[in-house]
Amino acid sequence: MNTDGNPTWTIGRLAAAAGVHVETVRYYQRRSLLPIPSRGYGSIRRYCQEDLERLNFIRHAQQAGFSLHEIAELLALGEKRCHEIQMIAERRLKEVSVRIESLHRVEHQLSGLIDACKRGGEMDTPIDCPLYLRIRED
C-alpha cells in the first residue's frame, strides 16, 4: 500500500495483473508509454492502480490494431480530446481496410495458383509446377 492507503504492486505483480510479461512492462517504459516509478522503501519500485489502468489501455489499444506510436499519441491526448482520438481511430481504420483489400487480392491470387497446380497433376520438379512458374514470372 502507498501512503494514501491504495494498493501497490511490484513490477512482477503488475505484469501478472495485466496479463503481460515483466519485459513487456519494461519495454513500454523504454518507449515512454508507461512511467517508471521512483524507488520506494527497500529500493523497490511500486506501481499503483493508475499504472495498471494505463497498461491495460495499451494492451487493449494494441488488440484494436493501434501501433505503439499511435498509442503514444492517444495517451498524450488524455481523456479530453475525443475528436482527435476519433481522427486517429479513423486513420487506423482506413489503414486496416487497405490492408484487408490487399490480403483479399493475395488470397484470390493464391487460390488461382493452387487451382492451377491441382489441374496440372503431380509434377516431378518444382520447375514444372504452375505455381512455381507463375511466381517466377512475377
TrEMBL record:
Q: Which Gene3D superfamilies match?
A: 1.10.1660.10
Q: Per its UniProt record, what Pfam families does this chain match?
A: MerR_1 (PF13411)
Keywords from UniProt, A to Z, are: DNA-binding, Repressor, Transcription, Transcription regulation
Question: What protein name does the entry list?
Answer: HTH merR-type domain-containing protein
* The HTH merR-type domain, residue ranges: 8-77
Give one GO molecular function term: DNA binding
Give the organism's phylogenetic lineage.
Answer: Bacteria, Pseudomonadati, Pseudomonadota, Gammaproteobacteria, Chromatiales
